[in-house]
Amino acid sequence: MSVEQAGELLVLPDPAALAEEGARRFVALAGAAIKTRGRFRVALSGGSTPRALHERLAQQHRGAVDWERVEVFWGDERFVPPDDPESCYRMARETLLDHVPVPAANIYPMPTVGSTPEAAAQAYAETLAAVLDAKTPRFDLIFLGLGPDGHTASLFPGHPEVLAPSGALVVAVHDAPKPPSTRLTCTYKVLNAAANVIFLVAGADKAATLRAVLRGPLDVARLPAQGVRPAAGSLVWLADAAAREIGD
Ligand code: 6PG
Questions:
Q1: Residue 139: helix, strand or coil by DSSP?
Q2: Are 203 and 140 in contact (CB under 8 A)?
Q3: Nearest to 237 by CA among 46, 206, 42
Q4: Does the beta carbon of 235 lie inside 6 Å of ligand 1?
Q5: Considering the entire predicted model, what is its pTM?
Q6: Which residues face 73 on adjacent strands?
Q7: Residue 185 Cβ < 6 Å to ligand 1
Q8: How far is the CA of 88 from the centre of ligand 1 (A)?
Q9: Atom nearest to 144 CA in ligand 1
Q10: Where are the alpha helices (DSSP H) in the chain?
Q11: Over its length of 248 residues, how does the chain's per-residue pLDDT go in tens digits?
Q12: Which of 29, 84, 181, 229 has the fewest CB atoms within 10 Å of its CB?
């Protein structure tokens, strides 16, 4: 995959610097979006890497964001109740949303109770289209992670939605190799419509995968993260030094 397609890579010395850089970019993009459009629409990522970034936003950068004008969504979610320890929503609440004045009406968790994963995916697609009022919702910012197997959001290697995108905005995922096995995920249609996509990648266990994604041949079926190439937006990889060990 060429450098152009891979986006900008910024290597930070350690996870704390990575979190700070991510938080700084959130603040800058929020300020710009609120200035021009009166609101900032961000989709958060699950996993462990965003935690430190969330905490920096809630503490060191709390006063730098007009939280009343921030609308919060998720790029994917584990199909567990919102108070489950595995819930991405719960993680975001505990590390960020319980500590900043985002109005409750501006927080749009993926629905994970009371319906099937397929019905929940459809419902969230309708929410995205309604709130962002577009056939193809355009987020101001989407945070994504990278799994050691090359997955991002809940788009896993060999998954039907990766092999043959359905055109849906959100799909249900079954048999995810990363527990919990049932999940909901935004598709490339949403990820590649974003104005800004920022990958957060930390740790030596990601180094070989990051190198393959950025420098290896294009093979989205094997490395779904390679399928993230915003059509009219910026793509930035924030990685810590440990994740950038192998190769050049
Ligand atoms: C999830 C995520 C997933 C995550 C990567 C990286 O719900 O698990 O959306 O895509 O971002 O697996 O996870 P870590 O940050 O924990 O390494």
A1: coil
A2: no
A3: 206
A4: no
A5: 0.97
A6: 43
A7: no
A8: 9
A9: 11
A10: 3-6, 15-37, 50-58, 88-95, 117-131, 160-163, 188-191, 207-215
A11: 454 457 999 999 999 999 999 999 999 999 999 999 999 999 999 999 999 999 999 999 999 999 999 999 999 999 999 999 999 999 999 999 999 999 999 999 999 999 999 999 999 999 999 999 777 899 999 999 999 999 999 999 999 999 999 999 999 999 999 999 999 999 999 999 999 999 999 999 999 999 999 999 999 999 999 999 999 999 999 999 999 865 55
A12: 181
Q: Is the CB of 48 under 6 A from ligand 1?
A: yes
What CA–CA distance (Å, rounded) separates 188 from 36? 26
Q: Which two tokens stand for residue 80?
A: 């567990």
Let me know if 205 is exposed, middle or buried by CB neighbors in 10 A (0-12, 13-18, 19+).
Answer: exposed
CA 88 to ligand 1: nearest atom: 7
> Do you know the residue count of the chain?
248
